[in-house]
Amino acid sequence: MTPRQRWLALLNDRKPDRIPTDYWATGEVTARLLKELGCRNEWDLFERLHIDGPYHLSAPPTATSHPQDPQADIWGIRYRDVDYGTGVYKEAVHSPLAEMTTPDEVHQFAWPDPDDHDFAEAARRADNLPDDRIIFAGDYEPFLLYCRMRGMERSYMDLLLSPEIADAILGHIFDYHYRLN
User: Where are the domains of the chain?
Assistant: First the structure.
């Protein structure tokens, strides 16, 4: 079975020849595997390791920062690099909604525009999809993003103490991704 056939069998409640697999790793782990296994790229690595990872199709963003904070991403979150000795990861250090106390304040925030993506490029990419891979389109982790925008502790407290704030924030995140996807 090809990776695509394997995933489709599983999703259609049929038995694949084996459980489909995916791959998630830090850049430095992937770079080391590529080097150690003599692979030219991730697709070669997937073949070598029998990884059924999907092809990710998306419209590349045309905006890279928040309109009111050029040091932040499109959501207004600022990050810092944290070096852990063998690599680096990004950690949120500024949560733009942390001090908001009402849904009105949440609604007034400058939310990103899902139209700020290159849909023509996505269409070009869609014309050249591999036929042996399942296609993964869209990206949506609402509570993770919510926690970065509000702060981890406050996010969990909101669910119990300020559900109207949680609803307003999660509503904006949902609307963005619904329109984008």
Answer: 62-118+140-180
